[in-house]
Amino acid sequence: MRKLSIEELSRIDALTYRQYAHRDVVMVLDNVRSALNVGSVFRTADAFGIERLYLCGITATPPHREINKTALGAQQSVAWEYFADTDTCLQHLKQKGFRIVVVEQTDQKILLHEFIPQPQTQYAFVFGNEATGVSDSAIHLADLALEIPQFGTKHSFNIAVTTGIVMWHYFLHKRQFFSTQVQQTP
After folding, report:
1. Which residues span the domain enclosing 31?
2. pTM of model > 0.70
3. Which of 12, 32, 132, 166 could form a disulfide with 16 if both were Cys (CB 3.0 to 4.6 A apart)?
4. Could you list the mean pLDDT of each consecutive 10-residue stretch along the chain, which spans 186 residues?
């Protein structure tokens, strides 16, 4: 076994990425404090081909030294948009037909492993502040809430870890749906 070189990975360039980005899923950052976390989310968004990242409230925006440090160029491939407040962003996304999914511990949550994305549905996943989570007003605008089961003493994952877990789950199920459709095609 050997590690592959950058050349062997054959990654696409930023322009090609934007042509093939998944138009049915976006991510919303609700007042994320750490620009380093924002940069990490850009990398996660790039890895999964997310069409757009919405940065809201106090969330740092490119160009920013700490975003650049962890994004490693992903802020060039992933389209992003800034909203002064999360509620306006979520109302905008609802008008565009997105289902709003907050990733938060609520009294009406669905555990992540029980969530199956529906075909032909656009999803906007909302991730919250490192200390206070998703804002109450964003929760009230949500169509559903997802919670990642945890078994330790802490109450939450870091937002950068959370985005990776949720997006992996989403695309794992989307891939299963697409492979099922391909198998059913005569």
Report:
1. 12-145+163-179
2. yes
3. 12
4. 87 80 92 98 94 97 94 91 98 98 97 95 97 97 97 92 97 66 43
